[in-house]
Design goal:
445 residues, UDP-N-acetylmuramoyl-L-alanine:D-glutamate ligase, L-fuculose-1-phosphate Aldolase, 2 domains, six-stranded mixed β-sheet, 18 strands, transferase, ThiN, EC 2.7.1.49
């Protein structure tokens, strides 16, 4: 039988950039990010680099007419919704893009000058040529070093970044996103400047050197959201959120620092069903036991985070918890993401120390005999955080103070009006089930 086709029509994004043989940056990073964001990626290669996670070993610039032919081929055939530029290498290539700028909608200019490894990717004489390209951009996305070259300002803090952004807007850019990754501090502060507003985006710095491809990924993500029709602020916020997660859950490949995880959000979304089913499997296993001694008065919460979870709505849990009924312990409802925000916040706080901890079950606080039976160390919330209004994050943080490694459970003794509990932790469904059953076995019935 001949089947009927059912084509889809994603928005098209064009990237004009260099090729990275290591796959972490350049055209390769752009296309991965664009496709993961639900758009169709097209490309015009400007340079072919011999590159990996350790650095750039060599590059070959394509003739300008060949780059122009690639751009023309894409624009003649595709309805391009957004364009991003990366490594342009020389003034002639920058001038070429300026000449075609009227045909390049939603132009995101990432003024690539130096690779993450420190290798130079733009001829010094080409720096001045960028001013005209900046003037054609919907948004220009320099890091602090690139913004300093473009504006002549030293950028040491967010105020300097905002001033540089205003300079770039005065050059003609519709907007400038001055990235804070190269500015020292515990937090990364990115600053978006338009003619009307200045917006800052703050996120905690990830303790890693695996940032290869970060600039390419961010600019490609912004272009992809613009292609979907997002307004600029939403597109930038979405791109920054993606990059923050992509850096934290980076790809440990190569002998160098590694690359950012371009498809991290797509992978995380794909894991939601599996995560939900895993919670169901834990509930099914536990409710087959005489579980009553471990069920808190408020009910037993069972939850699991997706592999790359960053928010409470990315933690699946039993809606209404497991409670005691005449027929024994039973879940009140099914599994739902965001069903247990307090437990989700506790689990995410644990994952700040050990991201492999994905599963959590809350039990009635058992005696020391049961705790001693656990194969692993147990942490305890400090006395100072026993107040009823202490946040889940604060309770977990005090439990980890002075604690080496990662605990298998956290004792929360509770407070006035707050029931004590044991937070059982594990990397997998089978392990968290086994730990709860071990506690149950050593608890007086």
């Amino acid at each position: 039988m001949q089947r009927t086709e059912s084509p889809v029509t994603p928005p098209v994004v064009l990237t004009i950039a260099g090729s990275d043989s290591g796959g972490g940056a350049g055209i390769q990073a752009d296309l991965k990010t664009i496709e993961a964001g639900g758009a169709f990626g097209t490309s015009a290669v400007t340079s072919v680099t011999a590159q990996n996670t350790a650095g750039v070993q060599g590059s070959h610039l394509l003739p300008t007419e060949d780059i122009a032919a690639q751009i023309r081929a894409v624009l003649d055939d595709f309805d391009v919704a957004a364009v991003k530029t990366g490594m342009l290498a020389t003034g002639d290539v920058v001038d070429l893009v300026v000449e075609r700028a009227g045909d390049l909608p939603g132009l995101v200019v990432d003024p690539v000058m130096v690779a993450t490894s420190g290798d130079r990717l733009l001829a010094r004489e080409a720096e001045d040529a960028y001013e005209e390209l900046v003037a054609e951009s919907a948004v220009v996305t320099p890091n602090a070093d690139e913004a300093a070259v473009l504006t002549g300002r030293d950028i040491d803090d967010p105020d300097d970044a905002a001033a540089a952004g205003r300079d770039l807007v005065e050059m003609g850019a519709d907007a400038a996103l001055v990235k804070g990754g190269h500015v020292p501090g515990d937090a990364v502060v990115d600053v978006l400047v338009t003619a009307e507003t200045t917006t800052t985006y703050r996120h905690d710095r990830v303790d890693t050197d695996a940032t290869h491809g970060s600039g390419c990924t961010l600019s490609a993500a912004i272009a992809t959201r613009l292609a979907h029709g997002d307004d600029l602020r939403s597109a930038v916020a979405s791109g920054i959120d993606l990059l923050s997660r992509a850096v934290r859950y980076n790809l440990d490949v190569g002998d160098g620092p590694g690359a950012v995880h371009h498809t991290v959000e797509l992978r995380d979304a794909a894991a939601r069903e599996e995560t939900s089913e895993a919670v169901e499997s834990v509930v099914a296993a536990l409710t087959g036991n005489e579980l009553a001694p471990l069920v808190p008065e408020s009910g037993m919460a069972v939850a699991a985070a997706t592999p790359y979870a960053e928010r409470p709505d990315e933690v699946a849990a039993v809606d209404g918890r497991v409670t005691l009924t005449m027929a024994g312990p039973r879940p009140n409802h099914g599994v739902r993401f965001g069903a247990e925000p307090e437990l989700a916040r506790s689990l995410l706080a644990v994952r700040e120390r050990d991201p492999s901890r994905r599963f959590a079950v809350t039990c009635r606080l058992p005696d020391d005999t049961a705790l001693d039976a656990l194969d692993g160390a147990v942490a305890s919330v400090a006395d100072s955080e026993r107040e009823a209004d202490a946040t889940p994050e604060a309770r977990v943080e005090t439990a980890f103070e002075g604690f080496e490694g990662s605990p298998v459970a956290v004792v929360d003794p509770g407070a006035v009006g707050v029931e004590g509990r044991l937070l059982v932790l594990a990397d997998g469904a089978a392990t968290v089930t086994e730990r709860v059953e071990t506690i149950l076995e050593h608890t007086e019935q």
